[in-house]
Amino acid sequence: MNVRRLVVGISGVSGVIYGIRLLSVLSKLEIERHVVMTKAAEKVIQLETEFPITKVKELSTKFYDVDNVAASISSGSFPVDGMVIVPCSMKSLAGIAAGYSANLLLRAADVTLKEKRPLVLVVREMPLSAIHIRNMLKLASIGVTILPAAPGYYHKPKTIDDLVDHVVGKVLDVLNIKHNLYERWGEHQ
Description:
This protein is an alpha/beta fold. It has helices spanning 16-28, 39-48, 53-58, 90-98, 104-114, 130-140, 160-174; strands at residues 5-10, 32-37, 62-64, 83-88, 119-123, 145-146. Strands 3-2-1-4-5-6 form a six-stranded parallel sheet, with helices on both faces. Helix 1 (16-28) links the parallel strand 1 and strand 2 (32-37).
């Protein structure tokens, strides 16, 4: 797949740095980034990072208000190569699993599913309840990629940025987007 345009969602859960880093990498790769972020995500960005919301908007090719359910990404006729929600809260996961399109983030995910486009959910929660696991299984069984924000350590990370890059690199791997964000298994042996 030659990825040229992605929808990137950022929901309100710890780990927003993964979404910001993904946008930065996609920008350098000149991949269009259609971004929608929940109000809770805006709050978490302020709590967890030094990035102003304006920086996230600058990293977007187009930024959409989460309440604008008439936006282009709410329609299957708007061509995109897939969608990533990073991080993905259990609330957003539950909405997607139930087909509950209460906002643009959930509607864009619903459209991604109905159009049979790749959907990657970078879930960030622990521990997981049986409800979380059932919702993940429900979505995985219809082809959604559930990608926990759980970095590997075989590449011997030295910084938090190394750990973030590993998770972002795994997202890019799933979408078949070439990168060099982390050293692959066996490359250091």
